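Exercise 7. Predict the joint structure of the components listed below.
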Amino acid sequence: MKVYFSHSISESIKHKYLYLDNDFLSELFKDEIVLTETLHILDGSVFLIDPLTALEFLRDIYMPQQYNKKKKFISNEIFSPATNHQEIYKNLQENALLLSRIYAHQNHKNRSGVVDLFLAARLMYYQSPLLITGNKKDFPSCVFDTIGVLNIEQSGDGVMKPFCLIQFNRTNFEACYSALQKLPQ
Amino acid sequence: MTDYREDPKPQYEKRTPTQIRLKPVKVTKKIISDLVEIVKENKELLRKAETKYQL
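Solution:
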C-alpha cells in the first residue's frame, strides 16, 4: 500500500484543526505503512476525533482483544477528542437540520447519514476546521470546498482510494440558506 | 435547538473545537512506533482469527 498526494496538502493543513472521518481512521488502522506515511504528510495539524466518529470506529466489535486494540489506538496522544457536551449538540442539531434541507433544495441526490450530518454541522459550527474523508459525496460542493486529495493505493487489487480534505464554505452556505428562505411559505 | 417547532438558524462558535486551545502534537518516532505496534498486533489477531475459522 502506498500514499500519493500533492505537496500543497501539507501547507494547507499546517496548524489547522483536522477532523478524521471513520473511514480514514480505519484506513490508518489497517496498514502500518499507510499509517506512517500519512502521519508524516499530515504532521503539523491537530488531529481531532468527533465523539460520533469514535463511536463508529468502535462499534460492532465484540472480541475484547480487538476492541482494546482499537481503543488504545484512538487514545494515543496524537488524537484529541473534540468537545462533547449537551449544549453543543443543541447547536449542532440546528445546523444539521438546516444543512439537510439545503442539500435537498440544492438537488443533492445522496442522502447523508445522521453521523455525517452532525460532522458537517461541526465543520460549520467552528471556525474553519478541516475534515479528511473518503465519502466526499456526504459533504456536497454546494456548501463544502475540497482543498486537497490524498490517494491510498489498496493492497491486492491496486485500486486507488481517494480521501478528500474538505472545508466549510460560509459564503456558499449563506447563499444557499438565503435561497431556502426565499421559498414560498 | 430546544424546540423543534422553531425554525433552525445557523449556529457559529468562536471558540476552538477542543476544551483548550491545542498545539499540534509533533509526530515523533515514539508515537509512530506505538501506533505501528498496535496495527501489527491487530493484523496478527485478525490473521489468527481467520486461520481458526478456516480450520
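Discussion. Chain A touches chain B through 48 residues (CB under 8 Å).
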